[in-house]
Amino acid sequence: MAENAANFTFTSQNKPSIFEIIASKSLNDTLHPALQKIALFLATNCPQKFNWLGKYYDELFLLLNCGLQYGYLRNYDATFSENFYGLKRVLDNDNQLTSHHRRISLLFCVFLPYFKRKLDEKVALYRLENADGCLRNNFEGRFKKLLILSHSTFEITWGLLTVYNYIQYMSHQTDAQLPILQLIDVKLAYPEPLPEEPSFWSLLFKGHLADLWQLNVLKNAITSTFEIGAFFLQFLQAWSTHQNYNVTALPTVKPPMLDGKARNYQNKCPICLQFWKIPTVLPVSGYVFCFPCILRYLRENQKCPVTSLPAKPLDIVRIYDNE
Asked: CB-side exposure of 172: number of CA atoms within 13 Å?
């Protein structure tokens, strides 16, 4: 009887709260837009040097995130955000992760979000085309409309499934905190206490410079740097909710200088040189284009056709005139 009570006490204490799960997920979702803001700021202010950052940011983030998460899964059996909140991944039977489960975890936390972001961008473009009546009643147009409907249905279903999983977890009907963890037979738990190791800063201030080259100390220094950076991003996100500034918004840059090119494109699209058909502005440069023209150009080049400033198809803004 006493053994069962002790086991129940240990199990309940080793079970993370729902707030820690949501906070960990929120931190993981914040990394991509926060770093994207820095990349877009550099690409917009210095397009000659950093234009590639705006164009290939998703692929660059994929490589960085893959290396980061692989290192954390290999050393801590947790992703970066999970380790930040003191959590680790274990199997449903409380055993340690196997190499197979680490690879599956890497696939679901790095590569799957990458492909989802690409799909979300495509669907958002199709929604723009559908709202402006650019989707024709042919096979391609019907396929895009079907994809829009399927995407919306999936998002709603997945959101409801996640909430249902939260309710099951809080009512002790399941040990998996997220639907994805349930798919791969993994759950989150508190790690066992590890022996205390000297910190990077304590060895530095004590003058033990020879010990700084130990692998575990350098690893702790790098981990601490990432954790401090993550805390700073979380602080900015929390602070921005009480201000008119959003950390995930597009960077604010100075208005472009008026050049001689603007007079050549007065009341006409700079691409087709005809009067605007569905006038659409590109905020990064201020030029107005035809909706089909600028959408097609940005898909292929991802920059303004006049100023060469970095831009993406989702940056365009439809102008609703009094036609």
From this structure: 4
Two structure tokens written together for 35 = 């770093």
In sequence order, which ranges of the chain are alpha helices (DSSP H)? 2-13, 18-45, 47-55, 57-76, 80-84, 99-106, 112-131, 139-170, 179-183, 200-206, 215-240, 261-264, 291-301
Query: In the chain, what is the straight-line distance between the N-terminal and C-terminal CA atoms, in Å?
Result: 80
Name the average pLDDT for the chain.
78
Tokens of 251: 């960077």
Query: Which residue positions in the chain have pLDDT lower than 70?
Result: 1-14, 193-260, 321-323
CA Rg value for the chain: 25
- State the pLDDT at residue 107: 93
DSSP secondary structure string, 57-80? HHHHHHHHHHHHHHHHHHHHSS-H
Angle at 78 between CA 75 and CA 83, to 5 degrees: 95
Kindly report, residue by residue over 59-91, the tens digit of the pLDDT.
999 999 999 999 999 988 999 999 888 899 999
